[in-house]
Amino acid sequence: MKYLSIAVSLLLLSACSMPLLALAQQEAAPDGPPARALEGPPPGLLHGPGGPGGPGAPGLPPFLRGIDLSEAQQDKIFAATYAQAPLLREQEKIAFKAHAQLRALAASSAYDDAKASALASTAAQAMAQISLQQARLEQQLLAVLTPEQRKQAQQRGDSRPGPRRPQ
C-alpha cells in the first residue's frame, strides 16, 4: 500500500510539473521569435485525418476545408505550404527582432527617432513580405483546384463570419 501511494504521488507530481516545464522552455529563448515559430510545421499542418476539417483534411487552410480533394491535390497543397515555411520563418525572425529592438529603444534613455523609424520600417517590411507570401500561397493553392472546387472555396469564404472583404 505504501508503494502504491508513493507511485501515485510521483505520477501526480510529474503530471503537475509538465505545464511548468513547457512554460520554462518557451521562456528560455527571449531573443528569438515566439515558440510557435521556432519548431515544427507551419500552423494548421499538424492535423491529419479526424482533425480539423474532418477526415482527409491534411491541415488545410480554412477556405479549403470541407472540399473533397484528390490525393494528388493534397500532395501539391502540402508541398506548396511546406515550401513557404522557411521564407515565413525568416521574415518572422526579422519582424520579431525589429519589434524587440524598438521596444528596448523606446524604454531606453537614449531614444533616437531616426533609429526607431528605421526599426519600425524594418518590422513593417517583414510583415509585408509575410502578407505577400501568404497571398502567393493562396493563389498557388487555388490553382490546384478544379473550377467547381474553386466555386466551393469561394462560397465557403463568403459564408465565414468576421470582417468582409470589399467587393
Q: How would you sum up this structure in a few lines?
A:
The protein has helices at residues 2-27, 35-38, 71-107, 113-144, 147-159. With 167 residues, it is mainly α.
Structure write-up:
The chain is mostly helical. The chain contains 5 helices and no strands. The radius of gyration is 22 Å and the shape is elongated.
How are the elements arranged and paired?
Elements: H1 2-27, H2 35-38, H3 71-107, H4 113-144, H5 147-159
Helix pairs in contact: 3-4
- Note the run of SSEs as H and E: HHHHH
Number of helical runs? 5
Q: Give the helix level as a range of percent.
A: 55-70%
What's the gyration radius in Å?
A: 22 Å
Provide mean pLDDT, rounded.
Answer: 73
Which word captures the global form? elongated
| End-to-end separation | 71 Å
Annotation, overall tally of beta strands: 0
Poorly predicted tracts of residues: 7-18, 20-28, 35-58
Multimer state: single chain
Describe the sheet with the most strands. Answer: none
Secondary-structure-based class equals mainly alpha
**Binned strand content:** under 5%
List keywords for this structure.
167 residues, mainly alpha, elongated
